[in-house]
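User: Hi! I'm working on a homework problem where we have to compare a predicted structure to a textbook description. Could you give me the structure for the chain below?
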Amino acid sequence: MKNKVKRPLNYRFISKALYFPETKTRKSILAIGDLHIGYEAMLIKTGLLTPMTQMKNLINELNSLIRKTNPGKIIFIGDIKHSFGYEAQERFSFKEAYEFLKKHFNEKDIIFIKGNHDTIDYSFENKLRNYYIEKGRDGKDGIAFIHGHKAFPEIYDKNVKTIVLGHIHPSVVFSDKDTSKKEKYKCFLTGKFKKKDVVILPSFFDISIGQPVNEYSEGYGYEDYFSIIPRKTILNFKVHAIGKDKVYDFGKVKKL
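Assistant: Happy to help. Predicted structure tokens:
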């Protein structure tokens, strides 16, 4: 892999999460991509023998990230649950995660964004939001957090500098010249869209690595990713692959 490249000062990649350091006008923020709580239970219901480790791993990872960064606010950018309908086990698992979070944050500093899988709100009094905008100094340099399957005019406001989204579960595939050996990694994507800095987060759950942004078939359904960012725009985004201990830069998607 290529050498690690330093991130801009306004955010850092930490494992599968995005971290915004504290400034004079806002608390530090930890942004987390798609959780898909209940994905493991769905696999079991289909007959696959899958160990029930999703929630244990999720809480352990969140605990590690919180200890490392000590964020003032945590934001989950959608697809918090997996099933499109009501599942009692999902609701129980969500509550378990929520109770853990409340030990580390004031409830007002736990933000849940609504994704396309979040058809039912398990968040009790902390209601799901369509988007969340963290204002910068004097109302400028704002950060908009959104799931990514649906746009809202507010995220393109002139005072918003950065848009953070997930939804497409980006990953990248590297292979030998003869394609006999392939390796797949979760990745972040960064680029520009509508004159905004954009960061696309990988999915946070590990059961699935994600959809390779550099390996797809025309007509297979991934041309636009069902995302607010068109495929042709994402081809010009930069890939930041998540290694074991570091995040590595690999240039633009279309060059891979």
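For your comparison, note the following. DSSP finds four helices and 14 strands in the chain. The chain has one domain: 12-255. Good luck with the assignment!
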